[in-house]
Design a protein that fits this description.
five-stranded antiparallel sheet, alpha+beta, single chain, 172 residues
Length: 172
């Protein structure tokens, strides 16, 4: 993402200047994936243009967190802007009090310190319109339930009563 041609964004302190010292930014990254089966299947089942959700606290997108089905990691993943390759992404930012952002970070780091699993059963529940997670193990997630879990740990609810939010629920 090259934003150097946007004059207002050339100042490295733009994020710091937009809010007082008591708040910090939280970035939500939604991806319009292109993989023929997984991304297109998620888009079809969830009726959304987005197929992946991630969260970060880094405006440069060098340390982005999510869940994914990759050969090297079938669960919690650390991504960065190069992970998104040719996919179209949307980045949303909000500012929260430092104590809330610290809680969100603690939750992310907790996932990073545990054995996690990408929960394929969540897809089945979504296909059959069942609004509850398939497992009580909090470390069994998909990308959008992970982002929601992190946000909920700080008392932030973007998805209402959805127990299995899709990337579109986070977007909406």
């Amino acid at each position: 993402i090259d934003m150097s041609n946007i004059p207002e964004l050339k100042d490295d302190n733009i994020i710091a200047e937009t809010v007082d010292d008591s708040h910090e930014p939280v970035f939500l990254v939604l991806t319009k994936g292109k993989t023929p089966i997984i991304s297109q299947g998620i888009k079809f089942v969830t009726n959304s243009e987005y197929s992946h959700a991630s969260i970060t606290f880094d405006p440069e997108l060098e340390e982005v967190y999510s869940f994914n089905m990759r050969k090297e990691s079938f669960g919690f993943v650390r991504e960065n802007k190069s992970s998104f390759k040719e996919n179209f992404i949307s980045v949303f930012v909000f500012f929260a009090p430092k104590n809330i952002v610290n809680k969100l970070k603690e939750t992310v780091y907790d996932f990073g310190n545990h054995k996690t699993t990408f929960d394929l059963k969540i897809f089945a529940n979504k296909i059959f319109h069942i609004n509850h997670k398939a497992s009580n193990n909090e470390y069994n997630q998909v990308c959008s339930t992970f982002v929601d879990t992190v946000l909920q740990s700080g008392g932030i609810n973007l998805v209402g009563d959805q127990k299995i939010p899709a990337p579109s629920d986070i977007y909406n």
